[in-house]
Amino acid sequence: MPPTYNPSERRRHVGNMLLELIADEGLAGTNIRAVAERAGCSVGAIQKYFRTKDEMLEFALQLVGERVEARLQSVDRTGTLVDVVRSWLLATLPLDADRRAEARIWAEFSVRAIGHRPYSEAAIAVDNDIRAALTEYLEEGRRQGAVSADIETSTVADALIATSDGLALTMLYDEGREVEALAALDVVINRLLPLPGT
Q: How far is it, in rounded angstroms, from Cα 11 to Cα 20?
């Protein structure tokens, strides 16, 4: 455990260890005892922070969402709108070890979210935050003349997110298709965000 007596920080430490475990073993290999071993504490200590396995997993999903949103917030927005949108979407793809682990976790939870309301609500909340931020950025681009006036920004945001989600899943089970995936991403961005007047 980290050298702190702050319960919130300890809970987050356990959550981070949980994410590592899910990335290594998948949800099927994840249980409170395994998390306790990974976090270096007792089962009883884990149960102080999470009453049930579901509560623990919902917190893990929340942590993944926070990581993705923080990465999106750090994207440099000084380039053209198309360049920024591309950088934004690249930040969601499994292009390094950390993002690959997060993408695997998200994929595992996405399957579990079907028919499991707490997971689906947590996933929808993250989706809504990302969609709202991307839509607002596209709206700002339209106000500045960088996006065609006839484009429905919320629909374009949905399409871009769906493209990113699909490519991320493909790259998880087919690591050799990174070049093709990035080329496909460029095609979609250029089709959905044509320059005004084109």
A: 14
CA 175 from chain centre, in angstroms, equals 18
Tokens 């993705």 map to which residue? 68
Tell which residue, 133, 131, 136, 109, has the closest CA to residue 120. 109
What residues have CB less than 8 Å from 127, skipping those under 6 apart?
A: 161
Rg, Å, the chain Cα set: 19
Query: Taking the complete model, does pTM exceed 0.70, yes or no?
Result: yes
165, 94 contact by CB (below 8 A):
no
Q: What angle do CA 17, 15, 114 make, to 5 degrees?
A: 110
Residue 52, number of CB atoms within 10 A of its CB: 10
**What is d(CA 67, CA 103) in angstroms, rounded to the nearest whole number?**
11
For 146-169, what is the mean pLDDT? 93
User: Are 186 and 87 in contact, with CB atoms under 8 Å apart?
Assistant: no
- Cα three-residue angle 12-16-19, rounded to 5 degrees: 135
Residue 197 falls in which region: left (phi positive, over 0), alpha (psi -120 to 50) or beta: left
Rounded CA separation 167/129 (Å): 20
Tens digits of residue pLDDT in 174-189: 989 999 999 999 999 9
Question: What percent of the chain lies above the pLDDT cut of 90?
Answer: 39
